What does this fold into?
Amino acid sequence: MSKSVIHTDRAPQAIGTYSQAIKSGTTVYLSGQIPLVAETMEMVSDDFAEQAVQVFENVKSVCEAAGGSTHDLVKVNIFLIDLANFATVNEIMSRYFKQPYPARAAIGVKELPKGAQIEIDGIMELPE
It folds into this structure.
């Protein structure tokens, strides 16, 4: 099975040796998104809620570039430097997903790239 690179200018450019996403068959593997604004490649703000919204917007943009939407995500991993922000993530996530929700993990980590407070990656299954 072949694989293809998914790329959009509406999400931050890769800052390393990876692609925004890779499509293999009908499955799309999204790389982690942090709260960078695509146009400036700068952090959206220091406010956690604003960072979370920006990350979900970035994920949404990559999903759309792959021909899907956040509703096609089947697995999401959320990395947080402070698990006390979990309730805020749930509230913001509810704006981007409807039932059935994707499988999800929330993982507390010591730090994230560029000082981000949140990072999200995922797996999307496109309709055949």
Observations:
- Residues 48-65 form the longest helix (18 residues).
- The chain has a mean pLDDT of 96.
- The chain is about 20% helix and 30% strand.
